[in-house]
């Protein structure tokens, strides 16, 4: 069964798609989490195992989502109906499309709030707000900002409007053009910041923290954290790669593209992480991860004076850029669904999607303020959104995709959809999906659910 033509057109080139797909994976989570995990769980040992997980889990799943998206040439729900019918499988498997769409909406709803903070901090940096600020003052300033719904709402709105404008221009004139311009710019900024920290003599301690091998610090938890990070860093199970893959030409070199995305994603995370932790250690600030690193520890690490203002402005602008490219890919997933399901224009679909996501994001925004203590089973609104998507929806969706492609889809159909000429490559891809990749996803689900921690306590 041949891959049908795309009624919407194709990416401008393989190089263009490479930057778009890399833009979907490179995000604020990579910068804020991977380097910290390396430092806490064995340095180079963690990095080596993480790269192995990318090859055995991330690469096969990434290629699978592109393969399915390219075969479907449709939104994630209608597309899975088509592929399930063509495979002669149960309609149960259409749940993959629903989970993918729900994940895209939910992830972007809280991601946009955090991304808005990065833009707000870039503006603050330009105004010299962080000049000479201490750690405690930086923490208090962030909490004051995050708990002020009016200020946070403004930046959340600005970010969603910006992402919406990009997507309304189309996947070629909007998403592709933005990725080709913005992501290389973010790379140049990361390289420039690394050069600056090398010249100021603050890189050596960061390198020791990130790369010193320590098997004792690695352990089974380090292995599980590396596996989990390798899955989440590729933006899998949340619909964006399915949507981007729908515009891929039939003869696109999947192997080279997937390797390229892994290389760009990893290299950027390491460069940005090196620059950030070099600044952290030079100022004597305690290392952290996530929001605490970027918005509480980091503002206190910038040098005083004009140089510090410029460094802070560049760094938060870089963070804003990578969040914007990732958000555009997620928004394309929901936009494409509305376009195909209701036959609307792209402008209407993107605007409607953005409004829905903006409104849902209010729950996350207020979770840092007036709704902070409004909890259900110990979690507020933001906690539930993050827990559902990261611990259940994304890994469960990826596991279902893995099982469907490797076990349910007929071999000839899968071979035709894969499209690569080398027969051994198809066999390797399907074998990885059937065994190590599927097992890894089951482990990720068990770890996310706390099952492995429970077993460890029981065993101990």
Characterization of this structure:
The protein is mainly α and 460 residues long. It has one domain: Hydantoin permease (Orthogonal Bundle). The chain is 78% helix and 0% strand. The protein has 19 helices and no strands. Helix 1 (14-25) crosses helix 8 (170-199), helix 2 (28-40) runs antiparallel to helix 10 (215-232) and helix 10 (215-232) packs across helix 18. The termini are far apart. It is a multi-pass membrane protein. It is found in: Membrane.
Note the main attributes of this structure.
460 residues; Hydantoin permease; Sodium-dependent transporter; membrane; 19 helices; mainly alpha; Na/ntran_symport; transmembrane helix; SNS_sf; single chain
| Helix and strand composition category | mainly alpha
Measured on Cα atoms, how large is the radius of gyration? 21 Å
Overall geometric form? globular
SSE order in H/E notation? HHHHHHHHHHHHHHHHHHH
CATH fold call: Hydantoin permease
Q: How much strand? A: under 5%
Q: Whole-Å distance between the termini?
A: 53 Å
In CATH, the architecture is Orthogonal Bundle
Share of helical residues: over 70%
- Quick check: average pLDDT? 94
The strand count comes to 0
- Uncertain regions spanning at least 5 consecutive residues: none
Total helical segments: 19
Subcellular location: Membrane
InterPro entries: Na/ntran_symport, SNS_sf, YocR/YhdH-like
Pfam families: SNF
Membrane topology: Multi-pass membrane protein
């Amino acid at each position: 069964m041949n891959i049908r033509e795309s009624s919407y057109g194709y990416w401008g080139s393989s190089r263009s798609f490479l930057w778009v797909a890399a833009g979907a994976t490179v995000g604020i989570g990579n910068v804020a989490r991977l380097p910290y995990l390396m430092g806490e769980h064995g340095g180079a040992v963690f990095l080596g195992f993480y790269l192995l997980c990318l090859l055995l889990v991330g690469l096969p799943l990434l290629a699978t989502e592109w393969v399915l998206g390219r075969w479907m040439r449709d939104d994630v729900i209608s597309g899975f109906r088509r592929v399930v019918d063509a495979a002669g499988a149960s309609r149960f498997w259409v749940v993959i499309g629903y989970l993918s769409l729900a994940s895209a909406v939910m992830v972007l709803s809280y991601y946009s709030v955090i991304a808005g903070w990065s833009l707000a901090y870039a503006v603050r940096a330009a105004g010299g707000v962080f000049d000479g600020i201490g750690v405690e003052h930086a923490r208090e300033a962030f909490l004051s900002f995050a708990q002020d719904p009016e200020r946070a709402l403004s930046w959340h709105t600005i970010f969603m409007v910006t992402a919406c404008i990009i997507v309304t221009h189309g996947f070629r004139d909007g998403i592709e053009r933005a990725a080709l311009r913005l992501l290389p710019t973010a790379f140049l900024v990361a390289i420039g910041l690394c050069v600056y920290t090398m010249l100021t003599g603050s890189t050596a301690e960061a390198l020791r923290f990130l790369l010193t091998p320590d098997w004792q610090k690695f352990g089974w938890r380090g292995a599980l954290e590396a596996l989990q990070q390798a899955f989440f860093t590729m933006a899998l199970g949340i619909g964006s790669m399915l949507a981007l893959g729908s515009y891929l030409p039939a003869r696109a070199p999947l192997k080279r593209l997937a390797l390229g995305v892994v290389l760009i994603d990893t290299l950027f995370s390491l460069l940005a992480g090196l620059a950030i932790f070099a600044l952290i250690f030079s100022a004597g600030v305690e290392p952290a991860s996530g929001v605490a690193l970027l918005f509480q520890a980091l503002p206190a690490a910038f040098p005083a004076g004009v140089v510090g203002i410029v460094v802070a402005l560049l760094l938060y602008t870089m963070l804003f850029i990578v969040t914007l490219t990732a958000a555009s890919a997620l928004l394309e997933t929901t936009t494409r669904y509305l376009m195909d399901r209701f036959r609307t224009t792209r402008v209407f679909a993107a605007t409607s999607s953005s409004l829905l996501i903006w409104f849902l994001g209010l729950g996350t925004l207020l979770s840092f303020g007036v709704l902070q203590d409004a909890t259900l089973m110990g979690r507020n609104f933001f906690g539930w959104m993050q827990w559902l998507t990261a611990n259940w929806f994304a890994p469960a969706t990826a596991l279902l995709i893995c099982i469907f492609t490797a076990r349910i889809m007929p071999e000839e159909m899968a071979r035709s959809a894969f499209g690569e000429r080398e027969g051994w490559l198809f066999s390797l891809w399907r074998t990885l999906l059937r065994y190590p990749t599927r097992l890894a996803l089951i482990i990720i689900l068990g770890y996310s659910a706390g099952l492995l921690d429970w077993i460890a306590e029981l065993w101990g």
